[in-house]
Amino acid sequence: MASLPTPTQASTEVLSQATKSNDSTFKILYFGLHGLAELTRTILAYAGAKTEELTVDWPNQKDQTPFKCLPVVYEVTSDGTVLELAESQAIERYLATKFHLFGKNEYEHHKVEQFLTSTDTTLQAFSTKVIRADADKRVEEANKFYTEVLPKFIEVHEAHLKKNGSNGHYVGDSTTLADIKTTLLINRVLFLRPKGANEVPFSAEKTPLLWKARETVDSHPTLAAWKKSQRYQELDASTKTMFKWE
Amino acid sequence: MSSPSRETASTFELTYFDLQGFGAPIRTIFAINGTKVTNIVPADWAAEKPLTPFGVMPLLKETSVDGKSTIHLAESDAIDRYLVKKFGMAGDNVFEENIINSYVSNTNSLQLRIFMKYYTVRDPALKTAFVEDILGYIDIWIKSNERQLVANGSNGHYVGNKLTIADVKAAYMVDLIRSLKEDAITEESTPALLKVKTTVDSIPSLVAWRATEEHEAYSEHNFSLFGYK
């Protein structure tokens, strides 16, 4: 039976001191697909953090998790403190704060949040309408998604990227979680294009600034290395198998 | 404004429809903090829509005390988070913030499920079937939340001993759960959650806001459109 790290019992002040550790190892408990852990794994790879994948033994582990669902991430600091992180969006925010991916001040932070939730709406729509469609409706649903949902996202987000100076970033002149999350959306929609569906409307020609944001994120050395890794290829493959994707 | 998010003497205008919807959490945060917000309903939303950052409402405008600078906030969740930090409802340290975020996130998931599969569904047979289905999720939510509240000392709060946004969201969820199953939240079965609800509900400035005609009008309109207040 695969046992889980034991979260350290201490006041939140003490735990917050521990969160400042910058050589922690992040132990990830999630199934072997991209799913709800994809952005978390991406942030960790982007930050060049040490990670470890825990073995999932769900029936035996479920009751040890705070919400009886995954992902759960355990941050183990150099002095052995174990911090339990749960709920994918809370984990993402925590990591983005730790790795300085929320901009330079509170207003930039808010702007990043705007783009995160706006992108999230489109990600949720893709998940609900396309990924979870019946297999025989997938092509139709994907085509509808490309013509009914994506154009608004593209128009609004290209405009914002232009307003920020067409520098490949949503906010300021350095990468924030907004850039990383949009890159994830673009890559997910491209990767999960059903066989026989129309072309995805993201490209260097059609969506130049979104494409630039994506290239800026994807060319980051530690992230590029993660995407070439064997583990990443396995996650790609099982993501498709899980949803019986062709 | 050099550090707008820390200024609390600003004036605020919220642009949204005249219903509860996504405006409610924001108005609740202002009410709890005792800060006035002017609610603006666009005269011609279709015309204003393309001029807004994302083509959607709510939108919040914050004007500095000297009237010289304004900032524009958008996206309901982003606005909530900004205000919650400003008004000291986001936890006192990074780890409290994280705990709060995880409970809020988990509660939002359940809330979304209820809205998408019950309150926006017309077919009564589907609605009944849904209630059967959702009770399992509600049970898990109750257990996770009671556990945290008991661990924190059953003091009506998720972290520390002061009000945070986790308390506010949970109080709202208690109402939503009761609208599906009245006896799911009781003194006997879920004392810690009930205490959160009564603590939030007794905040004087929130009680005052809820007693206003404006609030009542939003609730009525919400109810007529969606079937819940």
Automatic annotation (TrEMBL), chain A:
UniProt cross-references to Pfam families, sorted A to Z: GST_C_3
InterPro entries listed in its UniProt record: Glutathione-S-Trfase_C-like, Glutathione-S-Trfase_C_sf, Glutathione_S-Trfase, Glutathione_S-Trfase_N, GST_C, GST_superfamily, Thioredoxin-like_sf
Domain called GST N-terminal: residue spans: 24-103
UniProt record, GO biological process: glutathione metabolic process
Location of the GST C-terminal domain: 105-243
Catalytically driven reaction(s): RX + glutathione = an S-substituted glutathione + a halide anion + H(+)
GO MF annotation terms: glutathione transferase activity
Signal peptide location: none
Domain of life assignment: Eukaryota
Enzyme Commission identifier(s): 2.5.1.18
Swiss-Prot/TrEMBL keywords: Transferase
The keyword Repressor is assigned to this record: no
Protein name, as recorded: glutathione transferase
From TrEMBL, chain B:
InterPro entries tied to this protein: Glutathione-S-Trfase_C-like (IPR010987), Glutathione-S-Trfase_C_sf (IPR036282), Glutathione_S-Trfase_N (IPR004045), GST_C (IPR004046), GST_superfamily (IPR050213), Thioredoxin-like_sf (IPR036249)
Residues in GST N-terminal domain copies: 10-91
Pfam family for this entry, one: GST_C_3
Location of the GST C-terminal domain: 93-219
Lineage: superkingdom: Eukaryota
Alphabetical GO biological process terms: glutathione metabolic process
GO-annotated molecular function: glutathione transferase activity
PANTHER family: GLUTATHIONE S-TRANSFERASE
Record's protein name: Glutathione S-transferase S1
Organism of derivation: Entomortierella chlamydospora
